Every structure is written in structure tokens, then in C-alpha cells.
Amino acid sequence: MPDIAAVKAALAAQRIETPSWGYGNSGTRFKVFAQPGVPRDPYEKLDDAAEVHARTGVAPKVSLHIPWDRVDDYAALAAHAKERGLELGAINSNTFQDDDYRLGSVCHPDPKVRRKAVDHLLECVDIMDATGSTDLKLWFADGTNYPGQDDIAGRQERLAESLAEVYARLGDDQRILLEYKLFEPAFYTTDVPDWGTAYAHCLKLGPKAQVVVDTGHHAPGTNIEFIVALLLREGRLGGFDFNSRFYADDDLMAGAADPFQLFRIMHEVIAGGGLDAAAGISFMLDQCHNVEAKVPAVIRSVMNVQEATAKALLVDADALAAARRSGDVLAANAVLMDAYATDVRPLLRELREEQGLDPDPVAATLRSGRLERVAAERVGGAQAGWGA
Ligand code: LRH
Ligand code: MN
Ligand code: MN
Fold first, then answer.
1. What is the pLDDT of residue 255?
2. Ligand 1, closest atom to CA 19?
3. Which of 57, 225, 298, 345 could make an SS bond with 264 (beta carbons 3.0 to 4.6 A apart)?
4. Angle at Cα 385 formed by Cα 31 and Cα 166, nearest 5°?
5. Which one, of 1, 57, 59, lies nearest residue 313 by Cα?
6. Which residue among 68, 69, 138, 139 is best mutated to probe the pocket of ligand 1, counting the most ligand atoms within 8 A of its Cβ?
7. Domain boundaries, position 18
8. Helix, strand, coil abundance in the chain, percent, nearest 5
9. CA end-to-end distance (rounded Å), the chain
10. Ligand 1 nearest atom to the CA of residue 184, by list position
């Protein structure tokens, strides 16, 4: 049986990175429902992230999205983060909101548009230099809507050239995390639609390029834990954008739609040694909270990842190996299901108490009156990003 002290130590050491855009106003293309007290600038987004970290103890990193989080002085932003016990995490590029990108960015047929897109990616590396961030997270909205619209292989060539230029600019301890997404906004071809395409580009680029798995970016029924196991084995799993989806890219709270899937993913991560800090896997959230209160929702999401991780850590690896060796399919499955069926909330409450935290982080932030206080202080919140 797993040693509970070791399970707790692993849970205390896990780091979950939260996205700056999860703290701001967001919505669908139909409506953005503004909430009182949302951050007015990247500094205030960090203040909200600090509350999440203070309540959970495991969320000290914050991903930025450029230009949504553009500031004059990134070193000052990093210093603000540090003062609040945080550090700046992945820098996410954005080559999907300019009119110039109607037909794509790094895959665009016009070299002038590709130049602009690559320059933006290079600017993101400059920002990483200033913030101390090690991860450049690239997601491209590039693709086509109609058969014949553009040359599929030609677009791959343009993508490879653009990526190579950015890769060459990386510092020794910096890396590219290449994200894939099945569809949307393009509806016929997407230039990086799946892990295989991302993996092929990463292989060509070199060891500082890894794949990021956004859980919301797959076709329904895709076995995501298989992808995770394979990438991890190949040393090309850079991290996760955790969120939940019911239909397409819904960006709901991690663990809300399918906690069993999150458990299965974390089981493969742990089995492959991916929870050790040395593996360098980033456990990031990529979510928007359109109708629910944002800081409590981010806290809940962090807790959901912790619960899935705790259950995966409770898998009796010896019993599982023995059942597998003897070909006992039912027993092997039972080992996994026993761990999944365990209520880990008491364990996590105990761990938080040992760390001097409130055992119920959501209740604690609600009780603290912080939501009301910032609502009074902050008038005129910024849009999280979609359009900002
Ligand atoms: C694209 C995506 C990507 C973006 C983020 C805002 O759907 O998952 O990670 O940077 O959403
Ligand atoms: Mn994502
Ligand atoms: Mn997404």
C-alpha cells in the first residue's frame, strides 16, 4: 500500500499554475457577463492569483497571455509577483486577434504576415527574459475553412520555418511548449490539430520543444491518458492546460466534467515519473469562469487537480503490477477503481491543516470578505482577453 506520508509529501510538492485570463471578465461570443471586482490590470490579476496560492499553498505560478497582459515594465510585474509569493510562469503568445491573421499567422500565405507573427513570438521570448519565465506556450489558430483554400503541406513548411526561427532564439533554460487543438477557429484543416503533428514539429526542432496537452482540445472519446503516457515516455510531455469540456473547447473547471479522466491522466503521469519536479512537467490551468465567481472557481479547480492527483498517488502500484503479471484483468482494474473510489478530501484537509492553511479553501476565501472588498475597490474591471 502507498505510504501516506509520501503521498502527502508529493501533494505538498505539486505546483499548479493558474492563468491570468481566468481572473478577468470573459464570456462566449454571445455575451460577456461582467462581474464586480474583476482585476483592472495584470497587477490585480496577480493579486487574485496570490489569494488562490494563499488558500491552497500549491499555486505560486501564474501564466501570462501577451498582449492581454502587456505592461511597460515586465521586471516590475515579476517583482510584484515575487512580493506576493508568486512567480511568473508560461508566456502565452497570441497570434489570433489581429485583422492581419484572417488567413492565419505563422502559416499565412503572405510572408509579411508571417514576419509579424514570428516577431510577436520573438517579443514573447524577450518578455520571458525580463520575467524569468522558462516556458513559451504556443497555440496557433491557423487553419483553413474550405477544401482548396490553401496548400496543406505548404502551410506545414511555413509553420516549421517559423518555429525554427523562434527555437533558435531560446535561451538555455527556455523551452517551447507547442499546443494542439482539433478545430476552432478553423473548421476544415487546423495546422496543429493533434499531438502527432505537435510531436513531429517538436522532434524536428530539438530537445527544448515539448508538447502541451490541453484537455479540452480533443475529439470526444479521445483517450487522452494514452497520449500522455506516450509523450511522457518520449520525453516530450511539457505540460498540461487543464480544463473541462462537455462539447468542444468549453474551458470549464478542471475535474468538473470528467473527474475520472483527470484521475486516469494523473495515474499515467505518476506511473511515468512525471510528478517529480525534475520531469519539468507544468500543471497549468487554462480556463475561463464566465458565470461563476472567479477566484473561488480557480481555487476549486486547483483542489480538483489535487484530488485527482491524490487518488492517483493512492493506486497500489505493487498490487497493480502483480495483477498485471498474472493476467488478472479484473484485479488490475479493481486496484485502479479502489484508488479512484477513495474519498481523499479528509487527507487533503489534514494536509492543509498541517501546512497552517484552512482545510476548506473555498469557504475560507468566501468567509474572508475579500470578494466584497475588492469589488468595492476595483471599479471598471478589464476584459480577460477575448478582444482586449
Ligand atoms: C486555445 C487556448 C490556448 C490559448 C488559450 C486562451 O483554445 O487553449 O491555450 O492560449 O486558449
Ligand atoms: Mn490551452
Ligand atoms: Mn483552448
1. 98
2. 6
3. 225
4. 145
5. 1
6. 139
7. 4-377
8. 50, 15, 40
9. 51
10. 7
pLDDT band at residue 385 using 50, 70 and 90 as cut-offs: low
Burial degree of 49 (CB within 10 A; 0-12, 13-18, 19+) = buried
Handedness of CA 189, 192, 198, 204 (dihedral sign): positive
How far from the centroid of its chain's Cα atoms is residue 203's Cα?
21
CATH number at residue 286: 3.20.20.150
Into how many domains does the chain fold?
1
Q: Phi first, then psi: give them for residue 19, nearest 5 degrees.
A: -90, 135
Beta bridge partners of 175: 135
- The strand pair at 175-179 and 189-190 is best described as unpaired
Q: Which atom of ligand 1 is nearest to the CA of 249?
A: 7
Pairing label, strands 189-190, 282-285: unpaired
Task: List pocket residues of ligand 1, CB cut-off 6 Å.
Answer: 92, 139, 179, 181, 214, 241, 249, 286
How far is the centre of ligand 2, averaged over its atoms, from the C-alpha of 283 (Å)? Answer: 12
More confident residue, 2 or 273: 273
| pLDDT reported for residue 386 | 53
Cα(372) to centroid(ligand 2), Å:
30
